[in-house]
Amino acid sequence: MLEDLSLEEQKSVVKVGDVAVGGDELTVMAGPCAVESREQLMKAARQVKKSGGQILRGGAFKPRTSPHSFQGLKEQGLKYLAEAREETGLKIVTELLDSTDIELVNQYTDILQIGSRNMQNYGLLKKLGELDTPVMLKRGYAATIKEWLLAAEYVISHGNPNVILCERGIRTFETATRYTMDLNAIALIKEKTNLPVIVDPSHGTGKRSLVGPLAKAGISVGADGVMMEVHPNPEEALCDGQQSLTLDGYDQLMKELSAVAEISNKKLAV
């Protein structure tokens, strides 16, 4: 049961500079899974901005199942993200993997993303509570809703109220999609807490063709924002190309999301 949680007392809007996550405007975070090069990131960032996104996503440190897979450009990737922010005005969200990198990543980013694998890294969460930088906490792919919310309480109870939740799909017996997008969680979190929550249909489905339908569904059940993977050339992506939208596909979806947002009493500037 969730009755013993105290998150209903927390703030409903997290400010990221001039972007309000959880307010009247739908927040869109978009960009490549991984920062692969300056050219790749800048192309994506310009389209994210042009089509109405507010926050640029891109991984500089990548947690990969195989140690032989692309692990990210690390600090050079962070520098490219900062350059993209300077040109476009977009805020940045990027993943933090290790507590030893907190100071480095925090120098560059506007939101610290904690991925599925680190959702229950309580030592890391406690340290994030000592910061005032917003934290986006992705749900663990095998975590219950209560476990996810208790992980958020670790950050909040240690002094940082700026927590954004992200539903990114959970592992079930179903194998037709990469994960199972839990729309129940979005509606329940909005009922039981005041924390903003966004939906990540790229990871939640693992299929480019399903990103749009699940993004719309997430907004319809109360999500405050959407995170999407966007790549200039998905077929050449070093990771997650199969779930990344093309630049044109992202632009078209943003136009469609505007109508869904309006029905859900949210605004989307496109």
TrEMBL record:
Gene3D superfamilies registered for this protein in UniProt: Aldolase class I
GO MF term list: 3-deoxy-7-phosphoheptulonate synthase activity; aldehyde-lyase activity
One of the GO biological process terms: aromatic amino acid family biosynthetic process
DAHP synthetase I/KDSA domain mapped to chain residues: 18-257
Organism superkingdom: Bacteria
UniProt keyword list: Transferase
Protein's UniProt keywords contain Repressor: no
Enzyme Commission designation: 2.5.1.54
Keyword Transferase included in the entry's annotation: yes
Enzyme class: transferase
Protein name (Swiss-Prot/TrEMBL): 3-deoxy-7-phosphoheptulonate synthase
